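Weekly structure sync, notes
Attendees: PL (lead), two postdocs, one rotation student
Agenda item 3: pending single-chain targets
PL asked that the sequence for the first pending target be pasted directly into the notes so everyone works from the same version. It is reproduced below exactly as submitted, 205 residues in total.
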Amino acid sequence: MIGRLRGLVAEVGEEDALIDVAGVGYVVRCGSRTLSHLPAMGEEAVLHVETQWSEANGMKLYGFLGRDERRAFVMLQAIQGVGPKAALSVLDVLPPAELAQACARDDKAAVGRANGVGPKLAQRIVTELKDKPLTDGPVAAFHASALTSATPPPPSAAGEAVAALLGLGVAEVNARRVVEQAHLRLGEDATIQALIKAGLQELGR
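Predicted structure, written out during the meeting:
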């Protein structure tokens, strides 16, 4: 089973991406949000992968930017009536943390914004995922403490880099896109300066 891929982005289509890992091209099915956040072609990407096998379709790979997205994808498909396409659609409109919040609020309208998810299925998703851990433990614990704490969390390097680009007149959507791409390439330990530099280089292309 393939659980993670690290390689160069060779192609990006409407529903999938081709990732070149040491000369072997892997076709990975992704949601539109994941595809839009992939690095530019020829640059390195890291995808968390859910491998599925069926007699009719053989092996299929589904790619995500984070482990929590992959976990939510698996949990969504455990619900009757939710297949891979519907699960990806839900995660396109609601990342795992937001999906958990929508389920906690019993907000079936938010889940129903996903393509192919009607009111009945949205209600089933909300009911079955309520109180389920859709994000990694530390992340969930952080969100819970953030809601009850009066002290705001320290700003992240990525957040500071986005703010710096906004100060330079870059549109917010572009600033977030290039910083997220730089953060994915450079890793968790990337400095604010490195993220800003990489973001400006991407904008200058």
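Discussion points:
- The first strand starts at residue 4 and ends at 12.
- The two ends are 37 Å apart (CA to CA).
Action: rotation student to compare against the earlier draft before next sync.
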